[in-house]
Task: structure prediction
Amino acid sequence: MSHEKVFDNWGVPSLEAVLDARERRVARKQRLVETYNANVIAFTMNIPGPVKNTPCISACFFSGIEALLIYMKEHDLTEVEEYLLSTGPEGYFIFPVTASQWAVKRKLVTFEEDHPIGRWFDFDVMDSTQRAITREEIGAKPRRCFLCHDSARNCGRNRSHSVEELVAYTEETLNNYLQMEGKGVFNETSRDFSAGSK
Ligand SMILES: [Zn+2]
Result:
């Protein structure tokens, strides 16, 4: 199945554009559930700071898709749409209604936790009744902060880290990851993702 690809630009999006994008993502998921009569996964990047997409962020996104398709091989995922927007890259996948949406969500949470840059990955699952599957209902812990061991929610609320600090850490980690991946370190050191990812 071929999938649709859309690209706009790398500019800094307005707050309005970011909020708009959030609404459009929900609408896209609903449309895909209806079109394919399937469960839907939306893959986005979790990027602190005003800039939501760069060549580096997109490269990490594509690398994430590659690793995801290998990791989720037995779950029969099909990528159907891809958007490289100033508000961030978005990838949409469908999987059969006969599969357990909770098992898939559980595995995606493990992927987010185990992949070297999984903290910057975000996978939303919407089932074929258009219901979002939450981390809470599958018994997963809330997401950790980028920098410390507290929850992201606590650090966000307490403003424990400056945006500059979070942005610098993100750039450093994502760039290092791409470099390592180019050298093959990613393949050799990461047990769970070694099955042919490159
Ligand atoms: Zn923190």
